[in-house]
Amino acid sequence: MAQNIVQILQDKGIDVPEHHEEMLVNQWAVFEKMRATVDQESLADYDIGLTHVPGGDGK
Amino acid sequence: MTQDLAKQSIGELAPLLQNKDISPVELTAAVLKNVDKYDSQVNSYIEIQAEGARQAAKAAELEIASGNYRGALHGIPMALKDIMYFKGETATMGSGIHRDFVPDYDAAVVSKLKNAGVVFTGKLNMHEYAWGATTTNPHFGACRNPWDLNKIPGGSSGGSGAAVAADMAIASLGTDTGGSIRIPAASCGIIGLKPTHGRISKYGCFPLAWSLDHIGPLTKTVHDAALLLETLSGYDPRDPTSIDKPAQYYSGGLSEDLKGKVIGIDEDYFFRNVDKRVDEAVRQAISELEKLGARIEPIKIPSLAQAEFAELVTITSEASTVHHQNLIKHPEMFGEDTRFLLEFGELVTAVDYLQAQQIRRKLSNEFAQTFEHVDVIISPTLPFLPPLIGDNTVDINGQTLSFLDEVIRFTGPGNLTGLPALSIPCGVRDGLPIGLQIMGPAFEEEKVLNVAYALEKLQLMKGQKPDLLSVL
User: Fold this and answer.
1) Do B306 and A46 touch (CB under 8 A)?
2) What is the CATH number of the domain that holds B380?
């Protein structure tokens, strides 16, 4: 997992200090627990009106 | 007398200034004297602008003497978090990268305060780029809590909280993306108000996360918070998140009458896993409000169960977007914790981000439904008391938990929904203040302010303030 995380960041051109690797893995585990609280089914097609403003700001 | 002036609120000082019973010059001198005396230990200022403040105070004195009194903020010494731009002055954002950045325009809030005649005493310490809640700043030094210099003042607006609590500014402004006004307010025993998203323009304020960022006051009294809110509110087309809703004369409309008011309590979310000292103080305050005629109604907001995910995803994704280029080009210039969080934000997926926005919409709708039958929702501001500087963990009733995971648990929903939320001190336990959070319906800050005003009248703090003389 640590290698995957480091690889994802390196592919973006981000240099990860060695001592961050374990910290990132641990925080990712916390994040995955939080992600498990998401009610995926109720969100699936829930429309949040994500849009772009035609004509730009102030239109 | 001179030093006592710095202890007073805007509400107390304004009539004295207007009637020329005191001068902005002596008031500013009193504030600067405290800065000189205490800030070498507290470290709430990044930059002290003593000479500029004295000159501005003199100008205000002359203006008031000549009959041009501008209003309640005229001649009041304030210092702002060093993330709001002053034309031609350095704005560091508490960072190494922006250490020498000089904006060429004033932030909207700075323009408004300048027009109101505020005297600026300097720029206040903060968590680097506002991305954290300790204000243990690697570039400008750790800011310390005036109640206990070994403890954090909270953050990210920690300098604002500490300076106001220690009478080194009469009032301040902070920014709040996950709780960064309310957390230092709670930790330092003062008032912190995060208004509705869009109420105060963020033009000229460096972003942490656009959709969650707010600007708001940190003050000694509820009245002062109301006064600053009405001064700073208003539509600004230069801020894409600004909303055109009329502000009110909040300070003049404050009422402590709670008869018939309904206070919502969500036990499952806002009272789960709370330090027993915090829990006890907040419940005691709620019971006092009940005695004043408020009715308590249990509520349940189901999507709060997903709020921590939504807050973490939104704040990390947006912050990592803001700093993406610098994380690639100058990673070594970030402090350790900021760099780590920025790296983490690069791992979150687009699906995570959009699901977080779906949760936000659901959460906003559930809060709106709840506010159809309650006036405000009350909770603790923080689930713990301020930890030691340098600690990454907090103790909650014997459990050791991650500071990062716990710190915005109760404040984050206010950012996700954009609803107004205020922290007010409700007691002192083991020498540290405890904050109570009041949330209200969108653009109805007066409901939040009125409940806070009633609570303030109960004097639950019993006049206790940090005693810096005894700890220095």
Assistant:
1) no
2) 3.90.1300.10
